[in-house]
Amino acid sequence: MFKHIRNHSSELARRAGVSAQVGINHLTNQVKLSDQMEDSLLKTHTLNSIRRILRTSPPSRYLRFLLLPLVILMARSAALSQQLPVNLGTAANYVILAKTGVSATGTTAITGNIGISPAASTYITGFSLIADATNVFATSSLVTGKIYASNYATPTPSNLTTAIGDMRTAYTDAAGRTPTPSGAFLNVGAGEIGGQTLVPGLYKWTTGVTISTNVTLSGGTNDVWIFQIAGNLAEANGAKVMIGSAQARNIFWQVAGQVTIGTTADFKGVILCQTLIALNSGATLEGRALAQTAVTLDANAITDPGVATGIASVVAPKGFDLSQNYPNPFNPSTTIRYSLEKAGMVSLKVYNVIGQEIGTLVNGFQAAGSYSVLFNSKDGKVSLGSGVYFYRLDAGSFVSIRRMILMK
Predict the structure, then answer these.
(1) Is residue 391 within 8 Å of residue 350, measured between CB atoms?
(2) Cα of 364 vs its chain's centroid, Å
(3) 212, 240: one domain
(4) What is the pLDDT of residue 275?
(5) Among 145, 172, 274, 286, which has the highest number of CB atoms less than 10 A from its own CB?
(6) Where are the beta strands (DSSP E) in 230-306?
(7) Half-sphere exposure of residue 80, counting CA atoms within 13 Å on the CB side?
(8) Hey, CA dihedral for 29, 34, 39, 40, is it positive or negative?
(9) Where are the alpha helices (DSSP H) in 177-271?
């Protein structure tokens, strides 16, 4: 297939008014897939499609054809700059998860589950716990959900041990993230982010962070923010984290010190804290409070944000699989689902009919589980045209390729 393309590149370049060597270089440098990809493309009559393009396209389209790799490179750079959500594992089953204690005063309202381990249920105070008949969990008039402690009946102790381990793993993941490809936002505002508008990406502070006034996170529903904070995080009384179209489930605050949410303040996102998380009187949280020590509440409202886009379910599948996208045909977006039997490095990329990579949807380590990723044909610098595209999943030794159709 690639030899056929190279043989035509000189003629394409001549018709487009550029040098033959430029045409050859653009095509040969960009059209590089594995033998498996090539075989799959041939099986789906891709070679015939390319021949048809070469025979029928008018000269004005040849120039765009030769310049396409530059556009693709720009779109690819944008995709690689995005961060994957932090996988919380089974810690995502809890809106509050702590190791040493969870306390509440005043009229607190929690939507979601609470868990504590290795501390026992006696370290959950202010909730007037009502033990279930099975003794697997407890309930409370303050909680729309269930409350779990390490001294409850099987399987709760084991489940909590796993969740606490997953919480620590998620913290380490968030703390260890590095920019892709480069250039994290470093020490923005010298640690004062009140009044700022922050775009999606990876943010790192070597000190603490203060939110003295409203801060705005500006992005879309699938965008991800990861904040690495070496010191404390403090939100002032009445301040708000404003997110617009963004989702609280895709915002991750990794904090080495203590987190304090001020009186009547409004906070958004998943807090992964190495020490104490304290919500002062009347503060609200749409997100999760995951603390490696304790969580203290005072007449607060906390709501579960759901699981981040592209994050695995907590039950590992029995095999690897790449499903057909849905809907298909699609316009402008479609969902790609896949399953991982084992954890490992995962790559999910999209290609056009001549094997050029046009987007990287996933590129990093993922836990075993079932995933769902949105592909939008309008992402990147330019929108894609109608036609056949391919998406390829690489997960260890597992490789699978499927075809999808964009129809405008």
Answers:
(1) yes
(2) 11
(3) yes
(4) 97
(5) 286
(6) 233-235, 241-242, 251-255, 259-261, 266-273, 277-279, 284-291, 294-298, 301-303
(7) 13
(8) negative
(9) none
Q: What six digits make up the tokens of 351? A: 């290609």
The residues that bridge with 201 in the sheet, in sequence order, are 225
Among 119-133, 171-185, 254-268, name the one with the lowest average pLDDT: 171-185
Of the candidates 255, 278, 303, which is a domain's last residue?
A: 303
What pLDDT digit, counting tens, does each position of 56-65 carry? 444 444 444 4
Q: Are 210 and 239 in contact (CB under 8 A)?
A: no
Nearest-angstrom CA–CA distance, 99 and 119: 6
306: left (phi over 0), alpha (psi -120 to 50) or beta: left
The answer to which of 24-28, 104-108, 328-332 has the lowest mean pLDDT is: 24-28
- Evaluate the CA torsion angle 174, 178, 179, 183 in order and state its sign: positive
Read off the pLDDT of residues 356-366 as tens digits, 9 standing for 90 and up.
Answer: 998 888 888 77
Closest CA to 163 of 253, 97, 103: 97
Q: Domain check: are 130 and 218 in the same one?
A: yes
Report residue 281 as tokens.
């009187």
When divided into structural domains, the chain yields a total of 2
Biggest CA-to-CA distance, the chain: 81
Same domain, 368 and 296: no
Q: H helices within 177-285, ranges in order? A: none
Using only C-alpha atoms, the chain has a radius of gyration, in whole angstroms, of 25
In the structure encoding, which two tokens stand for residue 63, read together? 């120039």
Total length of the chain: 408
Q: What is the mean pLDDT of the chain?
A: 81
Cα atoms found within 13 Å of the Cα of residue 82, Cβ hemisphere only: 21
Q: Token pair of 302, please?
A: 């906390």
